[in-house]
Amino acid sequence: MTLTAFATSDPLDRAELETAPVRFPRPSRLAVKLTLDGAKAQRAADALGLHSLGDLLLHLPRDQREARTIAELVPGDSATVVVQVKSISSRSVRRRGMRPLVEATVADASGAMKATFFNQPWLAQRYPIGTRLALHGKFEGRRGTGVGAKFTVQAHARTDAVAGSEGGAGAVAHYPATDGLSSTQILALVREHRGAFEEVLEPLPARLRVRERLPDRPAALTGAHFAHSDQTFELARRRLAFDELLLVQLALLRRRLERRAASSAPELNSDRELTSRWLETMLPFTLTGDQAAALEAVDRDMSYPQPMQRLLMGEVGSGKTVVALYTLLRAVEHGYQGALMAPTETLAEQHFATVQKLMPGAVVPIGLLTGSTPGRRRADLLGKLASGELPLIVGTHALIEDAVRFARLGVAVVDEQHRFGVRQRAALDAKAVNDQHPHVLHLTATPIPRTLALSQYGDLDATQLRELPAGRRPIKTFVCSSDRDRERAYDRIREELRAGRQAFVVCPLVAESEVLQARAATAEFERLRVGELRDFRVVLMHGQMATGAKQEAMATFASGEADVLVATSVIEVGIDVPNATVMLVEDADRYGISQLHQLRGRIGRGPHDSICLLFGAKESPRLRALAAHSDGFRLAEIDLELRGEGELVGTRQHGETIYRIAELPRDAELLERARRYAEEVVADDPELMSAEHALLADALVDVFGAEALAPIRA
Ligand code: ADP
Ligand code: MG
């Protein structure tokens, strides 16, 4: 193997190798608290999460900002310059008391100017003639260079960058900063603690670093702070991002392993009688390829004596209930019970109805248990669940109440699993009998890109349903911007209505106020029913209406008595009107990609072609994405690209972004590599016991605490 210098392919010669420093890192020094001069700076450091020296080293510059040359500065400019001190002295000025002042003449290749530092008399000693400085401040006085040019310094630090060197003034690391602690001050701090880089450990085995072509960690940290090229910085940043991604994946995969090892589940690996009969003779359609693949995955998972933990992602209408029912029936044909839990009564009722439709003739008895199940009925259901007489149950949180006992719970399906808390999910698991835990299938209608799924649900096995069932009509989506577009849109709506179809008109989202949103919808309703849509029956629905009135509006529209439903985004969930073929969304720009995609899922549910008309700027990248794509997963990826991780609607609820350095989707490829390696490690050395993994184990404990490395029960 040839050794090269950091970020180059130049081999090191023998002399260089022999004089290379030997390091004895003492990582405990990185845990030392970071103390700053002044309470304000200290508070600012805490706010930035800079508590220890180690935190400081991980606070990477956002970019290398090109400094300006003195000759370029125009009075009033705030700028960073890289200069050399030519002369420096301190004095006091009588202005509102005595104010110590340091004045320096500083220069770069383009010229010289006078720099003034207030209230820091010691700087005259600290920055002797010849010192190279990065200064940030305000340029005042005369344009041009020379004595008339004055620069009031707001922040300053020594720098290695060469003043006014060829091709520009040089780059200055630019750090995420806050009030009380400027980027230049952080730069100075990092320089002051330069020695700390020596204390950084390399957690990755050399073998891996070679294979993945990653620089070592101390070099990467140094490179990230002091890089003078974007390439070096990026190489260094990626190495540090890899570490972060790897540790999260290791923690998740170990958690998965732990859960498997800690609990046993019934092996559902024989007796295909019921499910075969169901698939072949009772199911009113053939499965999509994705559904068939999901059934196989579920089969495989449940044939082992460890509980399945699988996430099934598919948008509304993708046919998740079929997969859920199959999973439940697998339990039944092995003599176990199955439970399906949904977050709301409406969803539970919908599932109950879908399941009955999918299983004609009630082959298997099934019950519905929600908060509004009458007492007698409830007592009856509970009795039959406890005795084992009732094999299948669909319900809400009511299913996890203490009073509910199962004779033999084999499978649990949890719909919209993110809407349940950890404790609620654990409560279902606790319905285990004789320490036999149920296999669990989690359903979610929020498609998320694989990169996010790996971060957020990396401890679950995931399956996607991307293909829509046959018979679904694709929706044509158009972006409407001009008055002419608007006229044509209403023409199109009237055309559909005359043909007997129905339409949704969705009013702008007013995030701050439901009241304002309701008012806007009411105004639009009043306008349309005497204006463009006066020949049709128009109804209104918004979140401020009484429940009864909302239900009535819905029922009128669903039955076809009304032609048009003017609504706020309350129609997002739980509406199925196959005869509705048009949706017009006002101010569509205000909605997120996934919200619009969910909204338009209300049309295209019947045998007719549907169109979605989005009002907003033609050039809006979000609206263009919706017009171009119908696949929710692809749209989620675009959303992620446009907004970045952590900003994504529907994922924010899963917690803040967990990474400091890594960025998704930018580092997606790196995440895949980290995942692959984490899988190898967990397969070969789950306890991280080998010498090669000793420092990786330490790093894991550092980030996630000792329980991240708790022994996995055999
Ligand atoms: P999801 O739960 O994902 O929203 P459902 O399972 O409720 O979707 O299915 C939506 C509708 O599509 C249901 O009426 C269901 O019967 C039907 N469906 C599901 N799978 C198929 C298929 N493979 N072919 C035709 N129709 C299907
Ligand atoms: Mg469903």
Reconstruct the topology from this structure.
Elements: H1 14-19, H2 39-47, H3 53-58, E1 63-66, E2 78-94, E3 98-108, E4 111-118, H4 123-126, E5 132-141, E6 149-158, E7 171-174, H5 183-192, H6 206-212, H7 217-226, H8 230-262, H9 273-282, H10 289-302, E8 309-314, H11 320-332, E9 337-341, H12 345-358, E10 366-369, H13 375-387, E11 392-395, E12 409-415, H14 422-429, E13 439-444, H15 450-456, E14 461-465, E15 475-480, H16 483-498, E16 502-506, H17 514-530, E17 538-541, H18 547-558, E18 564-567, E19 580-585, H19 593-600, E20 610-615, H20 621-628, H21 632-643, H22 668-684, H23 694-704
Parallel strand pairs: 4-6, 8-13, 8-14, 9-11, 9-12, 10-11, 12-13, 15-20, 16-18, 16-19, 17-18, 19-20
Antiparallel strand pairs: 1-7, 2-3, 2-5, 3-4, 5-6
Helix pairs in contact: 7-8, 8-22, 8-23, 10-11, 20-21
How would you sum up this structure, described in words?
By secondary structure, the chain is α/β, with parallel strands linked by helices. It is built from 23 helices and 20 strands. The chain has a 7-stranded parallel beta sheet, sandwiched between helices. Helix 13 links the parallel strand 10 and strand 11. Helix 10 packs parallel to helix 11. It is globular. The two termini are 40 Å apart. About 2% of the residues have low confidence. It binds adenosine-5'-diphosphate and magnesium ion (MG).
A few lines on this structure:
The chain has 23 helices and 20 strands. The chain has 714 residues and is an alpha/beta fold.
Total helices: the number is 23
Radius of gyration: 32 Å
Strand content: 15-25%
Describe the strand arrangement of the main beta sheet, using strand numbers. Answer: 10-11-9-12-13-8-14
| Residue runs with pLDDT of under 50 for 5 or more positions | 163-169, 647-656
